Backbone:
């Protein structure tokens, strides 16, 4: 009887061992779940997806893609990843990728990241290589309309129709406290009109005109270009639902961070600065408020 029991144990152990091997005897790799608990993400449209990555020995390994609906709900929050990969991971990174994606490497749009401490990572934009640390974000603007004034002429008295980011002067000077953005991102100014947000243009430097200066789609006047800072006057090319000249007083003004290329005409979810413009025109200066509540945050657990 004892010999029969011993034989049965040997057969059982042998069967269990074979189930953990491939047919050629090679042990099968085990997997574990990577769980995302993220808030503040938004729908990036049908042409893009979010993709998670873990950094292993300095190299990124994809953990899978997901989408986000209009209410901010993730299509998936748990991803099966090789246990060996997760155990060796030092960092989690979330990117925005084109869909379909012809490139297996991470895109330049690295949105949030976090370093693993034990089995979890707290993720934010502040951890490299994500978009940046905006804890000290600040800036000012003034209301003035230089583009509808011929050089050398007097002020037209309609300064409530233009906005420029900086401090008034001759010439005006930049006055942003914002980090230099990594590749794949650019700043954009906005004024909320009657029908929605109106772009003042995109910029990466604070002491030059933005990318909208002189463009055929610019809202500015026709007499001259603006000063050497980002901004816009609102006189021409009014979109549907808007009436120009636009009085900016009492309207919400926003600085956003946009992906490049940009997949939407609306402001992206990263809006570090926002405020309602006051009534004073130049030389009065208006100060932005921080708006970091718009930034995504969360934890990743392995």
Residues:
């Amino acid at each position: 009887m004892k010999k029969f029991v011993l034989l049965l144990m040997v057969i059982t152990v042998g069967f269990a061992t074979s189930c953990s091997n491939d047919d050629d005897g090679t042990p099968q790799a085990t997997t574990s779940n990577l769980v995302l608990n993220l808030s503040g993400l938004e729908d990036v449209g049908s042409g893009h997806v979010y993709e998670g990555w873990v950094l292993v020995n300095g190299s990124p390994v994809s953990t899978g893609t997901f989408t986000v609906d209009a209410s901010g709900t993730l299509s998936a929050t748990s991803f099966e990843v090789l246990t060996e990969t997760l155990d060796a991971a030092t960092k989690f990174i979330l990117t925005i990728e084109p869909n379909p994606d012809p490139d297996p490497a991470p895109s330049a749009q690295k949105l949030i990241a976090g370093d693993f401490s034990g089995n979890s990572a707290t993720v934010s934009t502040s951890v490299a290589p994500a978009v940046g640390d905006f804890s000290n974000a600040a800036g000012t603007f003034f209301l003035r309309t230089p583009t509808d004034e011929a050089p050398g002429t007097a002020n037209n008295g309609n300064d409530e129709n233009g906005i420029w980011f900086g401090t008034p002067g001759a010439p005006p000077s930049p006055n942003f406290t914002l980090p230099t953005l990594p590749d794949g991102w650019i700043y954009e100014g906005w004024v909320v009109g009657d029908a929605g947000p109106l772009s003042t243009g995109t910029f990466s430097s604070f002491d030059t005109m933005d990318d909208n200066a002189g463009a055929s789609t610019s809202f500015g006047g026709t007499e001259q270009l603006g000063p050497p800072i980002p901004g816009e006057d609102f006189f021409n090319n009014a979109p549907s639902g808007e009436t120009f000249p636009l009085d900016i007083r009492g309207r919400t003004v926003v600085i956003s961070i946009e992906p490049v290329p940009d997949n939407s005409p609306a402001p992206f979810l990263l809006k570090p600065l926002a405020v309602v413009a006051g009534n004073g025109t130049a030389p009065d200066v208006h100060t932005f408020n921080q708006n970091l509540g718009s930034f995504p945050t969360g934890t990743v657990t392995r």
